[in-house]
Amino acid sequence: MKQLLIAAHGSRRTSSNDELKLLGANVSANLGVAFDGVEVAFLEFASPSIESVLVGFFNGGTTKVVVLPYFLSAGHHVMNDIPREINKVLDQWPDKKIKLLPHFGALHEMAIVIAEACKNDNF
Amino acid sequence: MKQLLIAAHGSRRTSSNDELKLLGANVSANLGVAFDGVEVAFLEFASPSIESVLVGFFNGGTTKVVVLPYFLSAGHHVMNDIPREINKVLDQWPDKKIKLLPHFGALHEMAIVIAEACKNDNF
Q1: Cβ-Cβ contacts under 8 Å for A61 (sequence gap 6 or more)
Q2: Tens digits of per-residue pLDDT, B86-115?
Q3: Cα–Cα distance between A12 and B60 in angstroms, integer?
Q4: Can you tell me the mean pLDDT for A14-23?
Q5: ipTM of the complex
Q6: Which residues of A touch B116 (CB under 8 A)?
Q7: Distance CA B34, CA A120 (A)
Q8: Cα separations in angstroms, B29 against A110, A120, B3, B44
Q9: Can you tell me the distance from the alpha carbon of B93 to that of B61, in angstroms, rounded to the nearest whole number?
Q10: Which residues of B73-89 are buried (b: 16+ CB within 10 A; e: fewer)?
Q11: pTM of the complete model
Q12: Which of A66, A92, B118, B121 has the lowest tally of Cβ within 10 angstroms?
C-alpha cells in the first residue's frame, strides 16, 4: 500500500485549513490508481499532525508514503521541521519507507501553470 | 502595454528571493506575446517593492497590469496588504488599470499539477 501525504503549514484560520482539505480531495480525484489514498497534515495550528497521519497509515498496513511539502520555498519548515517529523516516525517503524519530495514551489510546472492562467485572462 | 506582476511575500534568505526571480523568468518564457513583460516584487524583506515596480511600469508607458499574488492561501497579505499597495499606486495614477488575480493557491490547476508530479514518481 502506498499513500500520499500533503504536508502543509497550517493556519489559525479554519477556512485556510479547509482549503487544504479540499485540495487533498481534488488531488485524490486526479491521482487514479497510483496511490491508495491521500491525506493532508499540518505542521502547526491545525490537525491532524504529520506524525499522527503517518502512524495511522502504518497501523493500517501502508508500507510506503510519499510526502509532498506544500510550501512555496525551501525555508526552515521544509528543510528542518518536516524531515524531523518524518524521522521521528521512521525511528519507530524502521521497516517502512517514506519518500520526501521537493517542496511544491520547486515543481517546474509552476511557471507553466502561472503563464497559462495569465494568458487565459482577457483583461 | 500590459505587464504581469508576480507579488510574493519575500524572505530574509536571498536564495528564496532568487528562486522567485527565476520563476519570473520561467513564467516570462512561457507567456508568449500575451504580456509585454513580467516582474517579481515583494511585500517584505526583499526588493523591489510592489509599489516601485508598478510605478516603474506606469512611468514606462504601461497602461494595464495583472497582479498575481504568489501565496498558497488567502491570509492577511493577500486580503489586505497587496490590495493596499495597489490602491496606493492607483490613487496616483487614476487612468491606469490593475487587475488583481486570485492568489496562486486558488488556481484549480494546483490539484492536477500535484497529482501528475506524484503519479510520475516511481517510488
Answers
A1: A1
A2: 999 999 999 999 999 999 988 888 899 899
A3: 41
A4: 90
A5: 0.85
A6: 30, 109
A7: 9
A8: 12, 16, 14, 26
A9: 12
A10: bbbebbeebbeebbeeb
A11: 0.85
A12: A92
User: Which grid coordinates are listed for B114?
Assistant: 500535484
Instruction: Establish if B1 touches chain A: CB-CB under 8 angstroms.
Output: no
- Whether residue A69 is preceded by a cis peptide bond, meaning omega within 30 degrees of 0, is no
Nearest-Cα distance to chain A for B112, in Å, is 6
Question: Any CB–CB contact under 8 A between A117 and chain B?
Answer: yes
Q: Which chain B residue's Cα is nearest to A100?
A: B123
Q: Where do we find the cell 510526502?
A: A67
Amino acid at B75: G
Answer yes or no: are the C-beta atoms of B21 and B15 closer than 8 Å.
Answer: no
Instruction: Scan for cell 501502508, then name that residue.
Output: A62
Give how far the C-alpha of residue B122 lies from the chain's centroid of Cα atoms, to the nearest Å. Answer: 33
- Per-residue model confidence (pLDDT) at position B117: 87
* Maximum C-alpha span of chain A: 54
Cα angle A29, A30, A33 (rounded to 5 degrees) comes to: 85
Q: What is the mean pLDDT of residues A84-105?
A: 96
